[in-house]
Amino acid sequence: MNRIMLLAMAVCAVLAGCRNANIEKGNTCLSLGDYPMAIEFFDREVRARPDKYEARMGLGKAYLQKAVDDPYDTTSWKKALIHLEAARTLKPDEPAVRMLSQVWAEYSRRMLSVGDTISALEALSSALQYDPENVDIINRAGILYFRLGYGEKADILFHKAITIDSTNAHSYFNAGMLSWSQNDVTGARDYWYKALTIEPEDEDILYWFALSEKRSRQKE
């Protein structure tokens, strides 16, 4: 092996070591919540290797931390989604898909905090595209539809959540609230009773179940 080939191999090894160091340093910064430094390290790697899965995932997470830290930063949300989508394309595995769902779910919370219910609902719909059996997201979407006056759509979502996970007390509680709003006292009481069998010490469920019991006795 001649000297030129040896030199080339040495250079490649050094570059690979630097890139691995960027990933390691970026992940360390992420764990410390230091997203500015994390973005810097991951960005170096992405510029050198645009097809590097770990760098794309890391950069997406770093921009997500940045977006969560600043309630007015919509640009970082978009950048987080760009890099996480790229990671999913490179390796369509569960972590990348789950992370995309979490980003959209978090964006939905942000939109709700500024009173934009429609955008929040659209974000939840996007989250469900990546994680269609996430009961928490399904329930939240049902609650938003309920607030917007779409009771039938909310009912479908609450029952979908119950079908996916029959041990989730919140799904029964939400279905009960919908029944109560429709003056179906018996239906509401039945849902809240099921919720109580799962979460017997939940104060909200106890309160509404007791209220439904009282209302049922008054009707007799």
Share of residues in helices: over 70%
The level 1 CATH classification of the domain at 17-116 is: Mainly Alpha
Q: How many H/I helices?
A: 11
CATH superfamily of the domain at 17-116: Tetratricopeptide repeat domain
Strand content: under 5%
The gyration radius over C-alpha positions equals 24 Å
Write the CATH architecture name of the domain at 17-116: Alpha Horseshoe
Shape: elongated
Quick rundown:
By secondary structure, this protein is mostly helical. It contains 11 helices and no strands. It has helices spanning 3-32, 35-48, 53-69, 74-90, 94-113, 117-130, 135-147, 151-164, 169-181, 185-198, 203-219.
Describe the secondary structure blueprint for this structure.
Elements: H1 3-32, H2 35-48, H3 53-69, H4 74-90, H5 94-113, H6 117-130, H7 135-147, H8 151-164, H9 169-181, H10 185-198, H11 203-219
Helix pairs in contact: 1-2, 1-3, 2-3, 3-4, 3-5, 4-5, 5-6, 6-7, 7-8, 7-9, 8-9, 9-10, 10-11
How would you describe this structure in keywords?
single chain; 220 residues; mainly alpha; Serine Threonine Protein Phosphatase 5, Tetratricopeptide repeat; 11 helices; elongated
Tell me about this structure.
The protein is mainly α. It has a domain of 100 residues: Alpha Horseshoe (Serine Threonine Protein Phosphatase 5, Tetratricopeptide repeat), CATH 1.25.40.10. The chain contains 11 helices and no strands. α3 runs parallel beside α5. The longest helix has 30 residues. The chain is elongated, with a radius of gyration of 24 Å.
